[in-house]
Design a protein that fits this description.
Blueprint: H1 3-23, E1 26-34, H2 36-39, E2 60-65, E3 69-70, E4 76-77, H3 93-102, E5 107-113, H4 119-123, H5 131-148, E6 152-161, H6 170-174, H7 176-192, E7 199-203, H8 208-212, H9 215-225, E8 230-234, H10 248-269
Parallel strand pairs: 1-5, 1-6, 2-5, 6-7, 7-8
Antiparallel strand pairs: 2-3, 2-4
Helix pairs in contact: 3-10, 7-9
Length: about 270
């Protein structure tokens, strides 16, 4: 090939690679997981919070509620999720993510949740082929989709809202701290490879089972107290739809509390 043609091909390739590089983004990914109050089982999307600022279009969203609904293996934008109510449901991810946008962050939310699920019976320990392993596999798929676009993904936090079902019996409840500690340690060390990843914990302290076996609340508080990059958020005082689930107003308020907790951790841990 003549030298001038080689130069032309080189220039074309250089321009093409530069265009791809210019389109690549740094992705701030937030993992939100747990059971019904993360899923939003009481979050009737008929009351989905208004979005006059059009913030939802700025929020990447990938979700799975196993056996119920999902974003069908693709990234989309923040929205209600199908499965519980006629117009769908939503959880604390909406106000949490919108608050991040207002703070100058363009968040991508990965949400994996299902009601009435315990660590003891459903999520299980890492390597036991439960919901936790399924979630990690799905998370890796979601990340790979972004990486194929040339984007660089950074997991910024894990928000874990779960524990009520592990309070069903005192026998299960007493093992909750050990089970949750192993799960969080695996997520930090083996999945994210960041021992200082911010982790926000929470559950409904007024759930009937939790009131009977408050050891699960104490477990989360003790885990949060171990080091500076974990914290516990309370649901006491938030509006509920029934004895087990936060109402839409309560879910919005909870998302705002989670956001505040994350921002305090991020100042110390990132």
């Amino acid at each position: 090939m003549p030298k001038n043609k080689l130069n032309f091909v080189f220039i074309v390739l250089l321009v093409f690679c530069s265009a791809i590089s210019a389109q690549a983004k740094d992705i701030d990914l937030f993992v939100m997981a747990g059971q019904s109050n993360m899923m939003g089982y009481g979050g009737d999307a008929s009351y989905y919070p208004a979005d006059p600022e059009k913030l939802d279009d700025l929020i990447g969203f990938y979700w799975v509620a196993p056996g119920m609904s999902s974003s069908k293996g693709i990234w989309t934008h923040m929205q209600p999720q199908a499965g519980v109510f006629r117009k769908g449901h939503f959880g604390p991810e909406v106000s949490f993510a919108r608050g991040l946008v207002r703070a100058g962050i363009r968040p991508y939310i990965f949400k994996y949740s299902l009601g009435s699920t315990s660590l003891a019976k459903n999520w299980l320990a890492p390597g036991q082929h439960g919901l936790y392993d399924d979630m990690v596999a799905e998370l890796q798929k979601a990340i790979l989709l972004q990486e194929k676009l040339g984007n660089k993904v950074k997991i910024r936090a894990l928000i874990w809202i779960q524990g009520e079902s592990d309070a069903e019996t005192s026998e299960i409840a007493t093992e909750y701290r050990n089970r949750l500690s192993k799960l969080l340690r695996n997520f930090r060390e083996q999945v994210v490879k960041n021992p200082r990843l911010p982790i926000v914990l929470g559950l409904d302290e007024q759930h009937p089972w939790v009131k009977a076996n408050p050891v699960v609340v104490e477990a989360q508080k003790k885990i949060a107290a171990v080091e500076t990059c974990q914290t516990f958020t309370s649901m006491i005082g938030l509006q509920k739809a029934d004895v087990s689930h936060l109402a839409p107003v309560g879910l919005v308020a909870h998302g705002q509390l989670v956001l505040e907790a994350y921002r305090k951790l991020s100042d110390k841990c990132i």
